[in-house]
Amino acid sequence: MLIQWINTGLRKIPTWMLYLILPIPGLLVIAAGLTDNLGPEPINELEEELGEFALKLLILGLAISPLLHFTRINLVRFRRAIGVMAFAYVTAHFLVWFVLDLQGLTQIWTEIVKRPYVTVGFAGFVAMIPLAITSNDLSVRRLGRFWRILHRLTYL
User: Pseudo-torsion of CA 60, 65, 68, 69, nearest 10°?
Assistant: First the structure.
């Protein structure tokens, strides 16, 4: 009964609302950075906050299927919005690292090779690009069953 009530309430929430709500934490962190409220190392703090929220959204997006399977709470219709917003946060995280922290193209390959966590993060970012590009109805129709195969890259 409770699950049915939750699912009924979730059906009333339009998916477009996530595109309005989910950017708010990132915008607040950026505003804090612009007003010099991110502490002694604002660029590192901005990078960390954006990256951490991206990771939370990725985990939430991946948890939707198990949540449905084990609890019957259905968030499947929100998965695309969560994934697209996760990509937006990952992109913002990357841009802060690339533009504000590295400040140039010459250091990027050195950092990617030298630091394993940067290597993994950059590989994940590159793997997410085709997923973000094909996260629309037209791509789902045109790619057919290959769309599902492509979107399994999420698990990387």
Answer: -130
| Total domains present in the chain | 1
Per residue in 105-149, pLDDT tens? 778 888 888 889 889 998 999 999 999 999 998 988 998 888 888
| pTM for this prediction | 0.89
Q: Tell me the C-alpha distance between 75 and 61, whole Å.
A: 9
Q: How buried is 29 (Cβ within 10 angstroms: 0-12 exposed, 13-18 middle, 19+ buried)?
A: buried
d(CA 149, CA 154): 10
**Residue 38 and residue 54: Cα distance in Å, rounded?**
18
Are 72 and 7 contacting, i.e. CB atoms less than 8 angstroms apart?
yes
Range of the domain at 127: 2-155
Distance CA 24, CA 75 (A): 20
- Are the beta carbons of 150 and 131 closer than 8 angstroms? yes
Q: What is the pLDDT of residues 5-22, one digit of tens each?
A: 887 888 888 999 999 999
Q: Which two tokens stand for residue 21?
A: 């709500």
